[in-house]
Amino acid sequence: MNWFELRNAAQVDSPALIVYKDRVVENINTVKTMIDHVSRLRPHVKTNKMTEVVQLMMDAGIHKFKCATIAEAEMTGIAGAADVLLAYQPVGPKAVRFMELIQKYPGTQFSCLLDNHASAKELQALAKQNGRHVQVYMDINVGMNRTGIKPDNTALALYQYLHSLENLLPAGFHVYDGHIHDTDMAIRKQQCDQAYEPVVNLVADVVATGLPVPAVIAGGTPTFPIHAQRRREECSPGTFVFWDFGYARNLPEQKFQYAALVLSRVISHIDDQLICLDLGHKSVAAENPQPRVEFLNIPGTIVSQSEEHLVMKVDAAAQYPVGTVAYGVPLHICPTVALYEKAYVAENNDVIATWQVIARDRQIIV
Q1: How far is residue 82 from each of residues 41, 158, 282, measured CA to CA in Å?
Q2: How far is the C-alpha of 264 from the C-alpha of 282, rounded, in Å?
Q3: Which of 271, 325, 262 is nearest to 298 (CA)?
Q4: pTM of this structure
Q5: How far, in Å, CA of 220 to CA of 236, rounded?
Q6: Is 365 contained in some domain?
Q7: Contacts of 42 (CB under 8 A, 6+ apart)
Q8: What pLDDT does 101 receive?
Q9: Among the four residues 31, 103, 249, 347, which has the most C-beta atoms within 10 Å?
């Protein structure tokens, strides 16, 4: 029996998200071998969105995390994580919710991002109003051109300003280089090092002013092996826990294994070569062109996809009778997970439990 096949698949309605617990644990153990010390790992939880997966990482000695939403941050608080960065600049109601989060989960050190004076003033006022001291990281733009401030003298001045605010505790820099994802590792490293050099200079400039050495949280999955070789930077891979065929194809040097699949079924035969499955684009991330999923047990070509249906061309439709269970690897696992309310947990070819995808919603309690 193949590792992905479920003996009790008949108990699982489709489409469904299947998480293979043992393979998740193996991926966590693998990521630990890729860095000199577990304390430099700060995994991004946006991929898994499940308290139980966070707990598995904590069981492996990982206690620092990164997230993108208040709900993801609250999930880590529920799990009892020690140190969590909201890798987002809280604005308006989100800043109020962030303060509520800090109050509700005092056992977790929460921090957030800032990249401008106005947002810093707003957070300072809220922190003072609530009698809190809030840890913050300055968001640095090294080419992603999404958020952040470029690492120049303006950034140095902003970081000094943050240190002048009574209720904010600047801890360092957040440096996300998600625009760097070349398959050729040599090219990826060259681009990563080039983008990161101004950050090294900014750290030196900060120290020269007499301020403490700033911590640096750097990179995502594509540049993780590069930043992992540096001396002190914290690294934030996230997809490693589940993996997907997008990264498996584009990042061959990272030897993680598939640990989350979408389960689907053949629901109709159109002709001798065309079959239809119940995996529409409501059930697998649809932001990329086809193929958005690769089936491990049904080779073929995706012809079309709509909200609830996926049509494939195969050699012979008769090989896959109506009701055949299909096991698919998503191209992009992170937004795929967010499409499901729960995941079926498999061990030794049997579904043994379900885990709630608790952080798929925008709000849990806070």
Answers
A1: 13, 28, 35
A2: 12
A3: 325
A4: 0.97
A5: 5
A6: no
A7: 64, 65, 66, 83, 85, 217, 234, 235, 236
A8: 98
A9: 31
The pLDDT averaged over each successive group of 10 residues in the chain (366 residues) is 97 98 98 98 98 98 98 98 98 97 98 98 97 98 98 97 98 98 97 98 98 98 98 97 97 97 98 98 97 98 98 98 98 98 98 98 95
At 218-234, the pLDDT tens digits run 999 999 999 999 999 99
Partners of 136 in beta bridges: 112, 170
Judge whether 158 and 199 are in contact, CB under 8 Å: no
Residues listed for the chain? 366
Residue pointed to by tokens 């958020």: 147
Helix (H, G, I), strand (E, B) or coil at 173: strand
Residue 251 domain-assigned? no
Which of these, 162, 141, 144, 161, lies nearest to 152 by C-alpha position?
141
What string of H, E and C letters represents the secondary structure of 191-242?
HHHHHHHHHHHHHHHHHHCCCCCCEEEECCCCCHHHHCCCCCCEECCCHHHC
β-strand 260-269 against 16-20: which pairing, if any? antiparallel
The DSSP secondary-structure symbol of 291 reads P
Q: How far apart are CA 148 and CA 213, in angstroms?
A: 20
**Confidence (pLDDT) at 125:** 97
Quick: pLDDT tens for 129-142.
999 999 999 999 99
- Helix axis angle for 70-79 and 93-104, nearest 10°, is 0
Exposure b/e, 98-136, CB count within 10 A at least 16 = b? bbebbeebeebebbbbbbeeebbebbbebbeeeeeebbb
User: How many domains, in total, are found in the chain?
Assistant: 2
Domain boundary among 239, 267, 286: 239
Domain end position, chosen among 239, 273, 306: 239
Domain assignment of residue 101, given as a range:
23-239
By the 8 A CB rule, do 111 and 127 touch? no
